């Protein structure tokens, strides 16, 4: 049963422009962008300040009303979609999109959680600095969602995950108290690092309202190399060489199989094969620096020449212009869209010890083939940090509802193999609703118990983002 007076209490506190109550206006907020999950809500709250967030959460806490924080709705696990309860209140920070400061001495950026990531990256670039968090959805995802899911992206091999870019946080706890942790200090060794509990918590411990982020020198000089390899082991050997020779200049090392490229060439207009011959797999490498371009290009050409001599790759193309940089990246970035155009598929966002990737690919492929021959493996990802998007497409000629019957069994085969190698069932997408069952199955029971106890400390009444993670 909903309390019909509660939306009015929200309006009285936040104003008409901060609360949506009409069912037809709430409807667009109830589903994830993939259309996998749809829930219910009695209101959408759009605060314009941290104090407004605190007021809204205090009201919800008092009335035991569940709160579902929502960012740009680009997540893949249903983490920002409400469940079936009609009592839910969706809380969006899209009106809190101010950049509070950019400091080019301390090299920090302080921004509110509703900021679009791409806008933050451009604002940093305008000050000759780099915010290295870079995702395919960066022009629609919001900072709060990036923080709440500990987003990854293509530059993790050099700069780390989102949590490694955060110096401080401001957040509102479920009871309406404001956590004033928005510090820009590089060193603060005073007890528990509480902000790290909120990062990656998927909105289950509170609502992040602002963050202080690290900035880096802007790397205007970029060179991209697309290499062809005969195997994932060859790619691993190539990574070892590039890491040794390229050092901190290597900021992306992306792997994708021939099946991925075939699908891109078939499904995406205007794409061309990068080499005259088809090869088993490909590696896209980006190096960037602040030095002059000839010096970086000389380094790249020397290392790639050594790789070819040592048979660590079978062919290579080095970018000669920004246009070529972008076209090479498109071959990697269009894989997800190509797979969506191809039809229904099952996604697995997993991570493994980097040295185990070749063995995992071999044994997991055998398991999938034994379980159901003909399932197409669309494998790509951030090889340099151990993150694979191990996706499955239905066999050629199979009906579009193939995965209604087979998804669960195939997923078990994949994740059992991930666990066997000491990997993780979620590298960068989080748990949300999609992976709750697998989280409880594969996570150590002690870790789960401690997480539940931490959640009770922050949210004893369980109002924050119910049905997510646990």
From TrEMBL:
SUPFAM superfamilies: FAD-binding/transporter-associated domain-like, FAD-linked oxidases, C-terminal domain. InterPro entries: FAD-bd_oxidored_4_C, FAD-bd_PCMH, FAD-bd_PCMH-like_sf, FAD-bd_PCMH_sub1, FAD-bd_PCMH_sub2, FAD-linked_Oxase-like_C, FAD-oxidored/transferase_4, Oxid_FAD_bind_N. Its cofactor is FAD. Residues 37-218 form the FAD-binding PCMH-type domain. Pfam families: FAD-oxidase_C, FAD_binding_4. GO terms for molecular function: catalytic activity; FAD binding. Keywords: FAD, Flavoprotein. The keyword Flavoprotein applies. It comes from the Bacteria. GO terms for biological process: respiratory electron transport chain. Belongs to the FAD-binding oxidoreductase/transferase type 4 family. This is D-2-hydroxyglutarate dehydrogenase. The lineage of its organism: Bacteria, Pseudomonadati, Pseudomonadota, Betaproteobacteria, Burkholderiales.
């Amino acid at each position: 049963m909903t309390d019909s007076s509660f939306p009015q209490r929200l309006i009285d506190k936040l104003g008409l422009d901060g609360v949506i109550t009409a069912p037809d206006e709430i409807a667009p907020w109830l589903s994830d962008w993939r259309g996998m999950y749809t829930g219910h809500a009695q209101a959408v709250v759009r605060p314009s300040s941290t104090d407004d967030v605190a007021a809204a959460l205090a009201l919800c806490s008092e009335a035991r009303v569940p709160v579902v924080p929502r960012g740009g709705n680009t997540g893949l696990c249903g983490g920002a979609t409400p469940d079936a309860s009609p009592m839910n209140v969706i809380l969006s920070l899209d009106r809190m999109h101010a950049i509070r400061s950019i400091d080019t001495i301390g090299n920090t950026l302080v921004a509110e959680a509703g900021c679009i990531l791409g806008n933050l990256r451009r604002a940093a670039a305008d000050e000759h600095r780099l915010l290295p968090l870079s995702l395919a959805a960066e022009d629609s995802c919001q900072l709060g969602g990036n923080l709440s899911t500990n987003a990854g992206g293509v530059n993790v091999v050099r700069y780390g995950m989102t949590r490694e870019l955060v110096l401080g946080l401001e957040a509102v706890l479920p009871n309406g108290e404001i956590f004033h942790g928005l510090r820009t200090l590089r060193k603060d060794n005073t007890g528990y690092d509480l902000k790290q509990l909120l990062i990656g918590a998927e909105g289950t411990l509170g609502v992040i309202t602002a963050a202080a982020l690290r900035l880096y020198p802007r790397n205007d000089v970029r060179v991209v190399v697309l290499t062809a390899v005969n195997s994932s082991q060859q790619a691993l050997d190539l990574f070892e060489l590039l890491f040794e020779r390229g050092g901190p200049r290597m900021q992306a090392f992306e792997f994708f199989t021939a099946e991925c490229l075939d699908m891109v060439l078939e499904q995406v207009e205007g794409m061309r094969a990068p080499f005259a011959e088809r090869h088993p797999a490909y590696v896209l490498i980006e190096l960037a620096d602040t030095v002059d371009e000839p010096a970086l290009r000389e380094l790249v050409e020397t290392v790639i020449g050594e790789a070819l001599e040592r048979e660590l790759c079978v062919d290579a193309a080095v970018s000669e212009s920004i246009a070529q940089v972008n076209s090479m990246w498109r071959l990697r970035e269009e894989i997800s869209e190509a797979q969506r155009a191809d039809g229904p598929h099952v996604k697995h966002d997993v991570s493994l010890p980097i040295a185990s990737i070749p063995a995992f690919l071999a044994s997991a492929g055998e398991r999938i083939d034994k379980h159901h021959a003909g399932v197409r493996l669309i494998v790509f990802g951030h090889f340099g940090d151990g993150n694979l998007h191990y996706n499955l497409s239905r066999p050629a000629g199979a009906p579009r509802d193939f995965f209604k019957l087979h998804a669960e069994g195939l997923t078990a085969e994949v994740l059992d193999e991930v666990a066997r190698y000491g990997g993780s069932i979620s590298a960068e997408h989080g748990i949300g609703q999609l992976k709750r069952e697998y989280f409880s199955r594969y996570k150590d029971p002690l870790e789960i118990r401690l997480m539940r106890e931490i959640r009770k400390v922050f949210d004893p009444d369980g109002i924050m983002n119910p049905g997510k993670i646990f």
